[in-house]
Amino acid sequence: MRQPALPHRPLTTKTAKITKKWQYDHVYRHGSRLRANGFNFIFTLNELSCHRLGISISGVKSAVKRNRLKRLIREYFRLNPAFPAKIALLNEGGAGVDLVITATKRFNPADLNDLQEIFSSFLSSRSNCTDALSRQKREIIT
């Protein structure tokens, strides 16, 4: 049986990852920032039909802990493919979002459920960033 099409491709494909330095630089330079305790979301709209994810971990000296944190974040986005659109306050259709998550050593979720709780509480408490996003939408349209 064929599954219904998702509005955006899942984040597991290679094209749905931010991998190059210039891609990170573009998001850092032109993106809007949402800050929280131990992590930041930096996002900008893209002209692709998919959301792309980049992860930057700093201050965590142990490679095992760094990689575990990256695996948890990637798994969360695999299970929640519409999360980048929620961060950017988008509808399900339209342009994709380039989202970079920067985390520090203060960001230390115990497991996937803890990560989901952190991100969902962050989303529910946030009410800013709509002006920056509407400006970005106008720039892409024109």
Features:
142 residues, alpha+beta, Ribosomal Protein S5, domain 2, four-stranded mixed β-sheet, 5 helices
Summarize this structure briefly.
The chain is an alpha+beta fold and 142 residues long. The chain contains five helices and four strands. The longest helix is centred in the middle third of the chain and has 17 residues.
| Beta-strand residue percentage | 15-25%
CATH class (first level) name:
Alpha Beta
Query: Strands of the largest sheet, in order across it?
Result: 1-2-4-3
Structurally, how many domains make up the residues?
A: 1
Please bin the fraction of helical residues: 40-55%
Poorly predicted runs are 1-11
